[in-house]
Design brief:
The chain contains 23 helices and two strands. The chain is mainly α and 474 residues long.
Length: 474
């Protein structure tokens, strides 16, 4: 019996079996804490510095709080049904993309997000370098690129512990990040607000201030979309829908933008101090703090990045697990850790920050649009779990080749439309429409609209809406 119980726990916590209410471990506070720990990772400082280098102080407020909050509240709406059914939303997407279509997207999206964890490992590495520097020790240049791998290895240990270990590590991580955040805010207040607002970015490489502002908005939309891969998973652990939605939305829509803003202010302060926009909090603390405060804050930054790594490994591997359920969870953690380690040693992700977040968002945007349309308009908040898990006799979501053609066409249309207005790989704006919708925002709009129109055709209804007589009452 004990072995049977262990098997059931393994398949619910580390697998894709629907969670019944008794197995759901997270309250509002638990989900908010874990998600906030993930949301306020030190990569927020990088995002803030990116915006600070493009816009003035007032525009930065609009870009960080207005743009991202709107898209977060919108894209998090399907979370209600993740919790209601006890599944992650990648399982729901089997209705819209088919089993193999989901497998491809649930593999590509986490892989595209690997860059975030390379940034985390980079910041951990910089923390160690600064820590040794406090004691007057200069590390050999040859070993510095490998220091970030330590963060990956320690994150693996947390990820293998599952939600319980992540919950407790998040409590430590959140406290550490909050302390660092307050230290940074204190330093920022040492500079007169008028001086910060007077700083104007160098826009010589851009066609106009409007283009630079649009690029900042694109970064924030892409930043908002980057959370969806993870947000599709953790809410299934919550005890009720309201707690799941509001705890997740508050973490990604309030706490994360707040720390992005702190990162932007920090970059302005560093520009005022040394003439350069610097996103790394470890460099700022080492430059502007006394040795004692610098040492404490650097240690906290290092530990916080380990917690972020563990959380990210768990959530992203759970996404991939929905694509390849037969692959053991532990094996996925190890493979992902190796790939992130290679990116960390390479070191090119942080140098191409703006490009990598938009490239990932161009895949996530159409998927967000599709699931919003699928949940609220087409399937009217009802899913056939039996068909979603392909039980015998329940074939509503079985498509030829395991792929819903309508869903695939919608993703391609969204991706192409995004590229027609903005190329994230070159940073070239191809259409004035970019100034209104951004490239990532347009992928959501056009992907969702294409999915809606095609599914509502007579053929589309027969092809994709075959589950109406096979629904569970939830």
């Amino acid at each position: 019996m004990g072995r049977h119980d262990d098997f059931i726990r393994n398949e619910t916590i580390f697998g894709i079996v629907p969670l019944v209410k008794e197995d759901r471990k997270y309250s509002f506070g638990d989900c908010f804490l874990v998600t906030s720990g993930f949301a306020i990772a030190t990569w927020c400082y990088s995002q803030g510095a990116y915006s600070a280098g493009l816009v003035n102080f007032q525009q930065m407020l609009i870009s960080i709080f207005g743009i991202s909050v709107f898209f977060i509240l919108l894209e998090m709406l399907p979370i209600w049904f993740s919790t209601r059914y006890g599944i992650d939303l990648w399982i729901w997407l089997r209705s819209a993309l088919g089993k193999n279509g989901v497998a491809v997207m649930a593999f590509l999206c986490p892989v595209m997000n690997f860059g975030w964890y390379a940034v985390t490992a980079d910041l951990f590495r910089d923390s160690l370098v600064q820590l040794f520097g406090v004691f007057g020790i200069t590390l050999p240049a040859v070993i510095v690129p490998f220091l970030g791998v330590i963060c990956v290895v320690l994150g693996v240990l947390i990820a293998l512990g599952g939600p319980d270990v992540i919950k407790w590590s998040s409590r430590i991580m959140v406290v550490a990040l909050l302390v660092v955040g307050f230290v940074v805010i204190g330093i920022c207040f040492s500079v007169a607000p008028a001086d910060l607002m007077a700083i104007q970015p160098d826009l010589s490489d851009y066609a106009s201030p409007v283009e630079a502002f649009a690029l900042s908005n694109e970064g924030m939309v892409a930043f908002a979309f980057s959370w969806s891969t993870q947000a599709y998973v953790l809410p299934r652990l919550c005890r009720n829908e309201r707690s799941a939605y509001w705890s997740t939305s508050a973490a990604y829509g309030i706490i994360a933008p707040l720390f992005v803003f702190i990162g932007g202010i920090m970059a302005l302060v560093m520009f005022a101090a040394v003439g350069e926009y610097i996103a790394d909090p470890t460099v700022m603390l080492a430059t502007l703090c006394g040795p004692e405060m610098s040492l404490l804050a650097l240690i906290m930054v290092a530990f916080a990045n380990i917690g972020t790594m563990g959380n990210g490994l768990y959530v992203n591997d759970m996404v991939i697990k929905s694509a390849f359920p037969k692959i053991p969870y532990k094996a996925l953690v190890i493979v992902m850790a190796v790939l992130i380690s290679l990116l960390t040693i390479w070191g090119g992700v942080s140098e191409n920050f703006g490009a990598f977040i938009s490239i990932a968002a161009y895949l996530q945007g159409p998927i967000n649009g599709i699931i919003l349309v699928d949940c609220f308009i087409l399937r009217k908040r009802k899913l056939s779990l039996k068909s979603a898990f392909f039980l015998p006799g329940h074939d509503a979501y079985k498509y030829s080749g395991g792929v819903n053609i309508i869903g695939v066409i919608s993703i391609v249309v969204g991706l192409v439309c995004g590229l027609l207005v903005f190329n994230p790989m070159t940073g070239v704006v191809n259409s004035p429409l970019f100034y209104v919708t951004t490239g990532s925002g347009l992928t959501l709009l056009t992907g969702g609209l294409t999915y809606l129109v095609l599914t509502l055709t007579p053929w589309g209804k027969r092809y994709s809406l075959r589950d109406r007589d096979d629904l569970e009452i939830v």
